[in-house]
Design goal:
The complex is a heterodimer of chains A (444) and B (244). Chain A is of the alpha/beta class. Chain A has helices at residues 2-21, 40-43, 69-88, 116-124, 181-185, 188-191, 236-246, 282-294, 310-321, 383-401, 422-427, 440-443; strands at residues 46-52, 91-98, 103-109, 131-134, 137-140, 162-163, 170-171, 201-206, 220-225, 263-268, 270-273, 277-281, 299-302, 304-305, 325-329, 347-350, 361-362, 368-372, 376-380, 412-414, 417-420. The chains are: A alpha/beta (444), B mainly beta (244). At the A-B interface, helix 1 and helix 3 of A face helix 2, strand 1, strand 2, strand 4 and strand 5 of B.
Chain lengths: 444, 244
């Protein structure tokens, strides 16, 4: 009985202690909001401090589960984060809980003259810290973006899958179809007689996709912007990647996407830099990955590359464990291909036919026409677009073969990598569709 | 005897709950609240009516709560709450709640949750009707939805078994806003003479302002609550919490 009374006295006493030690709220910037007033330069002076996020659980009382536990836990972690920041001379910028991997991610600014890498090492020794790492920057892997062209209606006319008057092969009526490398190298229209990616959720984690592009009309199921402090209009790289994956086929406009009936999740984690490039950081990518995983994306396209990152690696591992295919663009300027392409389980893709890195796949990605903002089209090159082709191919494979379509079911022309045999990968040993077969569009 | 052994013994021996759980919660908080990957949190709140599973314990009067929670990195957690009603400017105790449990890390979007909690509460209007019982529970917790099943062998009086099943959901329609809902059912087991199943529901909205949160919710229960306290079948409850 005495002990019970002690425990009850403890409740009140501890509360009083906590009250006395609570830091002023003004010391911490609004944590639940993405506050990133500057771009890449600021990211280079930030660290991510991961505090353990306990799993949600039952909390008895008049306030039912989840009604106050979340707020109390968040306040406790902010108090710890504030203490850590003070100890290391940092400033807390924002935080973002990631229950999926059991951490609350705090962004802290490193003072001038200090290296984020060194600060992260020092932070990792703090017993309250579950992990610490510099804020990394990632770049889209486009080697050339080309210049925007008109609506591209001139090359081929006709409705529905037609015969190429020269080759006698099945094709699409999209005017730029014959210029698509996938039309030649993958015989895309023939693949579409088997599957079109119908209903497969593909997450495009990239810059802002132009949902009003006529060749993407109706293709985007979900849009989310994780770069709220840098509002942007439609951006080139994301729009180009989305078009290669899922541009509408047989609409007499532009191109045919590799998976024209896939359902796109356009997740903006990158922002346009200069005229064509795109840049992202660890936090924006983590948010987008978390969203994609939480919304059951079946394929995640990451046409970007940067330093190895433990937090992103954990999220990718979580996606892979759920059976999601993660496709990454190879960075030709790094020895290992860069992250996430180098991460175990990620499908690494390049547009360079001469690439001999083990496990790296080669896909069409040079001089590929694709969608651009403002209803325009452009020829683009780079492993970004090769990765987009493979993401589209996986959407076809997922439609036809379900979860059996995994990275190991890709068939390549040489063991362990190289050019993809798209038809063999899709058909899994069955005969490839004959030229001139009926498109699935015709049946629907 | 180690803490885990005592915990196992408490789970297996309901009669020991009241004497074991309180000290165990206290011991865990004092012994494990070091800095190594543990989280100690606390909150205080005011509610226009303290409703427990749909029944008002404060007879519709303003109630205050103080909660302390401890979460260890291993998944073990413990907590305690003190509840009091504010009457004529004076605080009067409605009782205490203690709990101890274990939640697994989340896998495939779900974590599993087991534990035991001890309620030692009283109706404000009539202290003769105490709400004393101990129950064990098991549940699953997802991103927006959780479900728990509770069992008590001494629900309100010795020998009265009861199951309580509940589902809780929450959604965040915008930053700092949360919608929440709850459905619960208390089902007598064992000696059911004169006892009926009860149902309760709650739905509301919460808005967080930094360390503060305000809530408004509607609660309902059926059949009519015991007639010993004056309260309504449904009620609008507003409240505020301060997290520190």
């Amino acid at each position: 009985m005495i002990l019970r009374r002690l425990s009850r006295a403890f409740v009140l006493g501890l509360s009083a202690l906590a009250l006395g030690s609570a830091p002023s709220t003004g010391a911490l910037a609004a944590p639940a909001t993405t506050v990133r007033a500057t771009a890449e330069a600021d990211a280079a002076h930030q660290v991510l401090v991961l505090l353990r996020l306990p799993p949600d659980h039952y909390r008895p009382g008049g306030a039912y589960a989840d009604s106050y536990g979340e707020g109390a836990g968040m306040a406790a972690r902010r108090r710890v984060a504030q203490r850590i920041a003070a100890d290391h001379g940092l400033k807390v910028v924002t935080n973002w809980p990631i229950p999926l991997v059991g951490v609350d991610c705090f962004v802290m600014t490193v003072p001038d003259g200090q290296s984020p890498e060194q600060v992260a090492l020092a932070l990792a020794r703090d017993p309250d810290v579950a992990g610490a790492e510099p804020m990394h920057v990632y770049r889209a892997q486009a080697s050339s973006q080309g210049s925007g062209q008109g609506p591209g209606k001139a090359l081929v006319a006709g409705r529905g899958p037609a015969r190429d008057p020269i080759a006698g092969e099945t094709m699409h009526n999209d005017p730029l179809y014959l210029a698509q490398p996938a039309a030649r190298e993958w015989r895309l229209a023939e693949l579409h007689t088997v599957a079109t990616g119908r209903g497969v959720k593909v997450a495009v984690i990239d810059s802002m996709v132009d949902a009003s592009q006529p060749d993407l009309a109706g293709q985007i199921q979900t849009r989310q912007d994780f770069v709220l402090d840098r509002p942007g209009a439609a951006e080139q790289h994301g729009t180009g990647v989305a078009g290669i994956i899922a541009a509408v086929a047989d609409n007499h406009v532009g191109i045919a996407g590799v998976a024209p009936q896939a359902r796109l999740m356009a997740l903006r984690a990158c922002w346009q830099e200069g005229t064509s490039g795109a840049v992202c950081d660890t936090l924006s990518l983590a948010k987008a990955l978390y969203f994609a995983i939480g919304h059951n994306a079946q394929v995640i396209n990451l046409s970007l590359s940067g330093p190895n990152d433990p937090l992103l690696g954990r999220l990718i591992d979580m996606a892979l464990a759920r059976g999601t295919v993660v496709v990454g663009a190879l960075d030709p300027k790094t020895a290992d291909g860069g992250f996430p392409a180098s991460h175990a389980g990620v499908v690494a893709v390049t547009d360079d036919p001469a690439c001999t890195l083990p496990g790296v796949l080669v896909a069409p990605g040079r001089e590929a026409p694709t969608t651009q903002p403002g209803g325009r089209f452009a020829f683009v090159s780079g492993s970004s677009y090769a990765a987009a082709h493979v993401s589209g191919l996986f959407a076809l494979m997922r439609q036809r073969n379900g979860k059996a379509a995994t990275p190991v079911s890709l068939v390549t022309l040489r063991p362990g990598g190289g050019a993809i045999d798209s038809c063999a990968s899709l058909m899994r040993g069955a005969a490839c569709p004959r030229s001139g077969g009926t498109s699935t569009f015709a049946r629907e | 005897m180690g803490a885990l052994q005592r915990f196992a013994l408490a789970l297996a021996t309901p009669a020991l709950y009241p004497t074991v759980l309180g000290p165990l919660v206290l011991g865990l908080a004092l012994g494990l609240a070091g800095p190594a990957h543990a989280q100690l949190s606390a909150s205080a709140g005011l509610q226009s009516d303290y409703r427990y599973r749909g029944i008002s314990l404060s007879s519709g009067l303003l109630a205050a709560t103080v909660d302390v929670a401890y979460d260890h990195a291993s998944g073990v957690y413990a907590g305690a709450s003190a509840i009091g009603a504010v009457v004529d400017g004076r605080a009067r105790s409605l009782g205490f709640i203690e709990y101890l449990g274990y939640a697994t890390p989340r896998r495939h979007g779900l974590s599993w949750d087991v534990g035991v909690n001890n309620q030692d509460l009283a109706y404000y209007a009539d202290k003769r009707y105490a709400l004393k019982y101990t129950e064990v529970y098991v549940g699953a917790v997802g991103d927006n939805l959780s479900a728990h099943l509770h069992y008590s062998s001494n629900y309100l009086r010795p020998g009265y078994g009861a199951l309580y099943a509940e589902v809780d959901g929450s959604l965040k329609p915008a930053e700092n806003w949360r919608l929440f809902a709850h459905l619960g059912s208390n089902i007598p087991v064992g000696d059911t003479v004169g006892r009926r199943a009860r149902y309760d529901a709650r739905a509301g909205v919460a808005r967080q302002f930094g360390r503060f949160e305000v809530q408004a919710s509607v609660t309902a229960t059926t059949p009519d609550p015991p007639s010993l306290t004056p309260h309504h079948r449904t009620a609008l409850v507003v409240g505020a919490n301060w997290f520190f």
